[in-house]
Structure formats: C-alpha cells, structure tokens
Specification:
single chain, 13 strands, 40% helix, TIM Barrel, 3-stranded mixed β-sheet
Amino acid sequence: MSFEKGFMTGAATAAHQVEGNNTHSDYWLQEQMPHSSFTEPSGIACDHYNRYEEDIKMLAKAGLNAYRFSIEWARIEPEEGHFDVVELDHYRKVIRCCRENGVEPVVTLMHFTSPAWLIRKGGWEADTTPADFETYVRYVCAHLQKENLKYMCTINEANLGTLIAGYIEKAKGAQKAGQLQIGMDLDAMLKEQQAKEAECMQVFGVKEANVFASPRTKHGNEIICKAHHLAVQAIHELLPGTMAGMTLSISDIQSVPGGEENAKKELERIFMPFLPAIEEGDFFGIQSYTRNVFGPDGEILPSADTEVTQMKYEYYPQGIGQIITTLSKYYHGPFLITENGIATDNDARRIAFIKDALKSVQKCMKQGIDVRGYLYWSLIDNWEWQSGYSMQFGLMDLDRKNQIHTPRKSMGFLGSYTKR
C-alpha cells in the first residue's frame, strides 16, 4: 500500500562512505595508520563523487522520490578559513540533478567525518568547534539560497559518542557489551590503544584524536548541541524556507518484566539529553535498525536461534514504527526516518524487512504521528566504517573492481510505495 502523495520514500548515503578520495578528512588519515582500527581504507569507495548522476537516475527510475546525502565539510573547508567554491558547486550539481529527476534532496551537513584541522584543534571536545561548524554552515547556506531545499540535517547521529562511551564502559566492566546499530567494530577500536596514541601525535599533534565517533564526555555533548543550535540559527536566517533537524541513532527500546527501569535509564541516557536541541529544530531525524531488550540485570542479548543480520544484530523490522511511537510521547513535532535498513546478502530478506518496516510506519501514522518520509540505508553497498566493504546494506549492488552499480529488486519494491 503506497503512502500519501508528498510522503518521501527514498534512500540515504554519506559522503565519506560513497564518494571516495576524501583526503582532507580525519577518517582518511586514520584509515592510513599502521594501527588503524579500520578493516580496510575507504579508497575510491563507490566513486559516487563522479557517478552521482547515474546513481540518482537509477534511484528515480525505481520510483523513489527522495535522496538523502551529505556535504563533506573536509572538501568545502580543507584548511581552516580556506573555502573551496568548486567543491560546493559539486554539491549544487547533485541537488539540481535530484530536481531534474523528480527527487527531493535531503542534505546532511555533518555525517561523522570532519576536516583534519578541526581534530588538531581538539575536535568534538573543543570549545571552538561550535563556532567553526557555524562558519562552515553559513558558507554552505549562503551559496545554496537558490536551491529551495526543504530539509537539512545539521548533525548526523548526535548521540553517537554517548552510545560508544556506554559500550566501552560495559566492556571495561567485563560485561556483555550489547549491540550498537553502526558499522563500527568497537572491539578493534579498543585494541592497541598506546600505539594509536603515538600515531595520533604524529598525524594530528594530539595524544587522543577527538573525532566525532570518539567516546564523548558530558561537555562534548554540550558542544554537539551548541553546534546544532548555531547551525539551526544559520539555516533559519539564510534559508528561511528550509526545515532544520538533528538526527539520532536509537534502537527500539523494550523490556521484559523487571527490566522496565533499565529500559527507562537507557532512553534517558541516549535520547533525553538531546531533546531540548531537537525541539529547537523543525523536525527530528530518527535512525533505527533493530531493538534492544532490557531485563532486571541489564540488556538481554539475542538468543542463539534468533535471526541476525550481517551486522550481528537482531532482525527486527517492526522496531522503526515502535520506537517512533515511544518517542512521540516526548517529541511532538514531525519525524523523518533518515536511516533504516538491513545488511544482508539475501535481497528477499531485504524486501521482507522493508515491507514490515513500512507497515509499522504506516501503523504509527494512523495513530496521528507526523512522519514525513522513509529514507532507507543505504542507496548502495558502501564502505561501512570499521567494517569496510563487508556489509551489504544497499538497494544497489557494488562491483568494486569495475565500479558498476546494479539496482536490486528491493529498490523497485521500495519505489512501489511512492505515490506520484
């Protein structure tokens, strides 16, 4: 059953994961380190930087009407105070390509990766970062005033550092660390810490590189929220017709009898600190892939006979509608599903996942919850951070050797929900 006209059914990517050769980025430098926690470097990725036009045309041909992508800060401002208008023009071309193909562009300003110079200044724990981010945002917005953007995400998964800090804390306590719905091998990140510190000094000039995916302090979260606040102000001022919003990563949070308090604490930890910042914006971007179940002794991991994805977390497509229903008790504005999907080599399971996920979204919409769109992660198999190219999230297959991008049946299936 298709959604009403105006509902966005689309797909999402992130610049560093698909474009390739993002050489001024903090992640690019980390990928090259001898003691890197990354399975393999991103390299040319999907060459989407050069192939975006054909990818967007395939997206549109499949019936999708929205595309979420990110603008790469490290390309726009490779050196502090030095802006590259040619690179910004590239993203203007991506936006216009979307328009020409009947696709609504949803722009993300910061999707994990930062310019290397920002990390040398202290990264996402430095008091100077919000102002630096605002400068970048204002430059971008000033040059996109004629593009009539409807949606702009300020910061992707603002609670990522909180999720990682919680995982590490559990690991230090020799507890079962539970699940994180991100393509990062956190066990690998914990290894060889001393060697990495020496390399960080060599590459960034600091002992610890506070990249966006670093475990975050309370002060770091305050910096994130301030950066978002300044970005929202800039967007409202320079792009008055554009809705601004933050995105968070939140699994469906459930409990068994006796685990209600632990589930409540988890929600308070990963969502509530960001609620005031979310309410400053015009919509909330929710990113959810699975569920986390809590009992009296903490999180309950899936049993051995539970179906899991390539990411090793539970196959649970209905969780997206259920977590939106939960969060709607606290946030009463529009929701935009900026990421939801499954890593699998079985496209039939991907189709089943999408079908049940959308059924749950339609159910919560019937309850009166304002959901504006569903953007599947991801448009194409890509470089999934520490997991490298091993995860198959894509609506399109990636032939890395020949850079051939081939739509899967799931792409057309998702497109069938679009009402033209």
